[in-house]
Amino acid sequence: ALFLTFILPFAGAWAQDYSDGNGYTTINTPVRTADPDKVEVVEIFWFGCPHCYSLEPYTQAWKKQLPSDVDFKYMPAVFGRNWLAHAKAFHVAKLLGIEEKIHSDLFNAIHQDHKRLNNEDDLAEFFTQYGVSEDEFRKQFNSFAVNSRLSQVDAKIRGYGARGVPGLIVNGRYLVTAATAGGNNNIYSVVDYLIEKERQAK
What is the pLDDT of residues 106-115, one digit of tens each? Predict the structure, then answer.
């Protein structure tokens, strides 16, 4: 027991020994964040991605203990033609104030219940479970507001230099993926390390 108490602190130190290329990669040109007083964490994802789905329980657990100086947001990527409908659905949910309710449910419907949900008709029907009429969904789905958000997000993701999903962006400066972190189970320990690094730099 004495031996264990002696080595544990050092094991923690080794685990936290991250650097550019080991745990994360540094973004060449930092991307401006929404609130300079907070440390921003952005998860780039696609609802159809099995890796994003398997990361979701880790994200939900991590979000429950979110410190007040950390701002977390999801950002849907469009790296393929069939990703567009899901990205638009995310922005519709956000505009209608039901993103929190719908996010995990949409992942589960696609990956657990094997529903396709990859076009406007299927998604309109899915949204009716949350009190959104099909007409209202379609109006938002094809709105200027949604298309404008798609363009803004696309520009940000290009700025991050992200090429795949899932990816975590810490304060517009660092990109963390399962590959750089050594698996989904370690992504948020790298994110926490970078949050602390950014806190100390303020």
Answer: 999 999 999 9
